[in-house]
Amino acid sequence: MTLLHAPTLWQLLERRAELTPQAPMLIDGRKHLHMTFTQALDIAERLAAGFYELGISAGSRVTWMLPTGLPAVMTALALARLGALQNPIISLYGEREVHGVLEGNRSEFLLVPDDGERDFPAMAERLCQQLERPPQVIVMGNHLPRGRASSLPPPPSDGQAVRWVYYTSGTTSQPKGACHTDDSLMIGGRNLARSMSVSAADVGSVAFPYAHIGGAMYTTMLLASGMSAVLLDRFQAEEAAEIYRRYAVTLAGGSTAHYQLLLAEQRRNAQTPLLPEMRVLCGGGAPKPPELYYQVRDEIGCGLIHNYGMTEVPLICAGFETDTDEQLANADGIPMQDIELRIIRSDGSLAGEGESGEVRVRGKAVFKGYTDPALNVVSFDDDGFFRTGDLGMRRPDGRIVLTGRLKDVIIRKGENISAKEIEDLLFTHPKVAAVAVIGLPDELRGERVCAVVELKPGAAALQFEEMVDFFMQAKVMRQKIPEQLEIVEQLPRNQTLNKILKHVLREQYAH
């Protein structure tokens, strides 16, 4: 597999359009519109010229919130052509979140869609009235701003300059602005392509918010490999599966929730293959129970490569198709190219093989710091390694296994308990569709273990005694068995990759 390289994202698009001009790049899954690499280059350049005439140039701070679709991809490429500092935020964000981003970024421009389902222009107007330095609002309607490419200044050539700000999902704290370069994002995209062994013949899919950092990674993967992708502005399993079949999609995914929804759809008609052309489901953003790997393999009939990454470091570890079932099910992959990874004990020393500690990383794929400089002091150690806040261990085969979050370790009577270990086991219960295990304040124990469970459709209620018996039969030490069980219709999740919001559950059940 040969992947194209270039110093900047725009130059990568130029090289791809020169190499395979008429090859398909993007497909709008609902509108059935196709775009070649040459068309993408032409449209993005004319859009850049239109932005330039409106005052956007190199270094301009631009926040855009557009749903997954051709306009979003073209906007990202057009701003990359100009060398603007772009800040993509998902279109599901509410007014409060957008206000915080605009205020923190001091954005000069705000790009919003003209979407009938939600009045984005009206929201933008209200926000401008609240801000001391309101941005110029550009509504991206049916007629996008366009100009003549000949009016543009030369494109940027430095791939090391900060040109992207992505905000963390804020599942445990206030979102933080992570600063990226073209280079750090393109490294993530090329590593993703290597992980899935993509070729120009593959058809992928972007069924998650394109404004998520995975959007820029996926764009890099398309340009580097010459493959194409189907765009979906929302993910509904039955509809998505039909579109995947229509366009013979070979690579799909997003997060654990996407796998589970496709599994549920396959189970509705178990005798008929749901995705006959699918080669690999791939994603990240949330923990994957090992049992889920085997369910996807056996029922959908394709591979599952679940990766480890975060907004600050788009792809830290990944599995490969050549890995064994055991490695893909039970590990989170190996450190990727341009990633140096350490496991650090609580006393600051290096952890040994098979020993859990904090995952720390450094390298060209790591972000350049937060927009708030004060956060960088505690986020990087003295050796320049980024402190991920994730707990993990290195196996003898070099694979990394995530064991939880530093903030997700439950300390019960002085005993450290991994929430993820309990979640992975309880997920194998036939009644359980999803589970979150949290620690709650307890006068006697310090913290007590609470399991919050989302049941499979049609399943009878899971009783507390039944859960305890399940753990006892699994021969789990008693200290790890949850002392509290809560059944919910739906676990709270964020709007990007459906991560379970444990801080919401802790607040809900703390008293």
UniProtKB/TrEMBL annotation:
Listed InterPro entries: AMP-bd_C (IPR025110), AMP-bd_C_sf (IPR045851), AMP-binding_CS (IPR020845), AMP-dep_synth/lig_dom (IPR000873), ANL_N_sf (IPR042099)
Residues annotated as domain AMP-binding enzyme C-terminal: 421-495
Domain called AMP-dependent synthetase/ligase: residue spans: 13-370
The keyword Ligase appears for this protein: yes
Superkingdom of source: Bacteria
Record GO terms (molecular function): ligase activity
Keyword Metal-binding: no
UniProt keyword terms in alphabetical order: Ligase
PANTHER family on file: ACYL-COA SYNTHETASE (PTHR43201), MEDIUM-CHAIN ACYL-COA LIGASE ACSF2, MITOCHONDRIAL (PTHR43201:SF5)
Family listed: Belongs to the ATP-dependent AMP-binding enzyme family.
This protein's name: Acyl-CoA synthetase (AMP-forming)/AMP-acid ligase II
